[in-house]
Amino acid sequence: MSIFGSMNTTASALTSQRLRMDVISSNIANVDTTRGKIVNGEWEPYRRKSVTLTAKEGQFSNFLQVAMGKTSNKSVGQGVKVSKINEDQETPFKLVYNPTHPDANEEGYVEMPNIDILTEMVDLISSTRSYEANVTVFNANKSMLTKALEIGK
């Protein structure tokens, strides 16, 4: 790993957590959106989105091979990346009784997005804490590199 390897790893984590916070913010902003997209000619409420993070070039077998000294794969431990952004297809939409809403059905119920604000807030706090931890690691690494440069003075 190069001298800036840990900074690159931390930077990838910061970028991924930032995207995760953006997706959570989008979910919170669309908590009342009843017309998210058109499916089969009819409006469907906004669906909750979530981010899946995976390790870059990171399979457990690769780490094990490097740890055992059988290979010296330089790409192991290069950080994380966003593998995909998922739409929650399993959680049903919430039905809210509001007969005056323009999207209400004949019985007066409106389908609302499948977003739970409490879950979103927990995810947002988790993402924020992870972001802060990575900033701390980045600053510690920067401090170590600065001290290493001062050795030569």
User: Helical percent range?
Assistant: 40-55%
Helix count, DSSP H or I runs of 4 or more residues: 3
Radius of gyration computed on alpha carbons:
22 Å
> Order of SSEs, N→C?
HEEEHEEEH
Any chance you could write out the topology, listing elements then pairs?
Blueprint lengths: L4 H25 L7 E3 L2 E3 L4 E7 L4 H8 L12 E8 L6 E4 L11 E4 L4 H35 L2
Antiparallel strand pairs: 1-2, 3-4, 5-6
Helix pairs in contact: 1-3
Keywords:
single chain; 153 residues; alpha+beta; two-stranded antiparallel sheet; 6 strands; 19% strand; elongated
Summarize the structure.
With 153 residues, this protein is an alpha+beta fold.
General description of the model:
This protein has 153 residues and is α+β, with helices and mostly antiparallel strands. It has helices spanning 5-29, 60-67, 117-151; strands at residues 37-39, 42-44, 49-55, 80-87, 94-97, 109-112. The strands form three sheets. The protein has a two-stranded antiparallel ribbon. It has a two-stranded antiparallel sheet with strand order 3-4. Strands 5-6 form a two-stranded antiparallel sheet. A hairpin with a 2-residue loop joins β1 (37-39) and β2 (42-44). The two termini are 25 Å apart.
